[in-house]
Specification:
mainly alpha; 3 helices
Length: 72
């Protein structure tokens, strides 16, 4: 088999080259939960990076907390 530069994609991949999968390898980690979320494309287009998303969400949380206190 010809050696392929790691920066280049092969035109075709052979299943045997990928090794054996292990069922449930990450299951325990998955059960613990994750902090990753998938944004819809229209929402993601409004934010240049993750910090912008975090800032917007923090501001929304502060606003929501203030509005809850007004109704008490």
């Amino acid at each position: 088999m010809k050696k392929v530069n790691s920066d280049e994609l092969r035109p075709e991949y052979n299943r045997d080259d990928l090794g054996h999968g292990i069922r449930g390898k990450h299951y325990d980690e998955y059960k613990l939960g994750t902090n990753l979320v998938l944004l819809s494309p229209d929402v993601a287009a409004m934010f240049p990076d993750e910090e912008a998303v975090n800032t917007a969400l923090r501001d929304l949380i502060k606003l929501a907390q203030k509005s809850v206190h007004l109704t008490k």
